[in-house]
Amino acid sequence: MKNQTIKPFLPGNYILNKQISRPRYLFGSRFVLDSGADNIWDCAVLDRKKVIETIDRRQLGEKGIHCPPGAREWGYTFFIPDDQKDGSGNYAMGGFKTPPKSREEALSVIRERIIKHYSLSELKEWESCPGHYLWQHYSCEWGCTSVCSEVGESISSTQTHIAFCRGAAKQYKIPWGLQFSFWQQGRINDYTGDAVWGVHSKPNGGHSPSLYKRTFLAAYMGGASHFYPEACAVINFCKELDEDGCYKLSPVGEMSRRLNRFIADNRNIGINYTPFGIVLDYYHGMFSGDRQITKRKAFQVFDYNAGDDMTYNLFDKFFPSSWVTFGANEATYQVNGPYGDTCDVLLQNAPQEVLDSYPCLIMTGDINLSEEEKKRYAAYVKKGGTLILNTAYLSFFPEYEAEYNGFRRCDITDEEGTVIVYGPDYMLSGLDEILCEQLLRLVPFRLSEQVEYLVNVTEGSLILTLINNDGYYYNHTTGEMVDSGKEKKLTVSYTGGAQVKAVKELWTAEVFPAADTLEISVPPGEAAILEFSLV
């Protein structure tokens, strides 16, 4: 983990610890896309046996993936009034009975009541799926054996949820997945024509097939174990039969079939490469629904302090404006960002081997390091890591504080590694320049325009996923709207120095000339997946 540009940019030089970074799977050794058929659903319009037959014959995915029992959508379950039911049909818990005096007390109360509410202490295996709340690491500490997040719905910033899930899964060495909800503001997709869920279920009711596809690709290429599109046992189908006696597929069903085919054709996607580990304070208590600046509260109780605001603003840098969902408009669920999907979230208590698996760590939040934690981060630097350190945290490291020159930025060498100090306290001034430098050092692709992107590493190739989230709009009134002026005409340059043997686009199977640079167009709401085979 020496602190220098990786040269040559061959696949084997990226992943510092394969045991930490590799995907872990809940179902054997493979990723699973669920069709929902074995889940309990009370659709009187569709015949269950015919649904299962259609899933088999049209290859729509697994007929129910039997996730372990556990805590579903439990973040808002805790806060919903206790005489109501949550989205999973569980009676809610009504929030704190008495206001907690500290964040430590708040988390302790949540833990105790969640474990009791879902009988988690009685389960050998259980899955956590907190939904709006970015509390994945907490349930990992409580013993969950797989971690998930509900996205879609009216939930802000899918990419932030993925960064929390993936980081928690690495920190605690368990699988992670996503539950994609087609519900949105009390509406949901329904192609049967019979209003299965009431008057607000209709073809344009919930989310678009495009967002479904983009979220899936961010999860699949991002190292997820499983992807559960909520209510797809119904949404995949129209009521009419086709010439083979199967249910006709809805637009969502056609997308499910296309996604499942992509999985079958592209099992070897390697290891997702995230060079940035964002180190967050243990008691952050963040909620992705904190949309109004004046009302953001940790654990829904404590006003944000300077450290909390710093963290909020940091994720807004990576995924601009995605904290806010604008009614039924999908525009900000996933966004094109300046740094791509290149980060995972760790808590400050991450073990040494997890810290050492990232070439670059960024501290944020109201961190108060223990003596043992200080030693870990100092050891991380000495072994070659790059620690991006705000001046607010200098007091934890007297050796770096003594070398700090008082300027807003100061680079300090410590044996094999580097500490980059910037300030003022809890402010992100100057961080963009630092992040751009690190991307140039660590990521071997240059893009002429801003899109969402992910990098995967296999034994013989690098895979670059490009997603254009700009210019695609969808809501329950107008359906799909596309601004063709937002098409991204990209020049993609591989800068790693190895020889490019072949370039193939995996979604369409298009073959490009073997070259370091290529031109490609990505329309609004679409994606491209480029595999660079290297020698």
Describe the structure.
The structure is a single chain. By secondary structure, the chain is of the alpha/beta class. It folds into 4 domains: 18-67 and 127-268, no CATH class; 69-124, no CATH class; 273-440, no CATH class; 444-534, Immunoglobulin-like, CATH 2.60.40. It is built from 14 helices and 29 strands. The strands form 8 sheets. It has a 6-stranded parallel beta sheet. Helix 5 (136-141) links the parallel strand 3 and strand 4. The radius of gyration is 23 Å and the shape is globular.
What is the count of distinct domains? 4
Largest sheet: 6 strands, parallel
Number of strands: 29
Identify low-pLDDT runs.
none
The structure class reads: alpha/beta
Q: Give the helix proportion (percent range).
A: 10-25%
Strand order of the largest sheet: 1-8-5-4-3-2
N- to C-terminal separation?
A: 23 Å
Overall mean pLDDT score? 92
Using the alpha-carbon principal axes, give the shape: globular
Beta fraction: 15-25%
The number of helical elements comes to 14
Query: What's the Cα radius of gyration?
Result: 23 Å
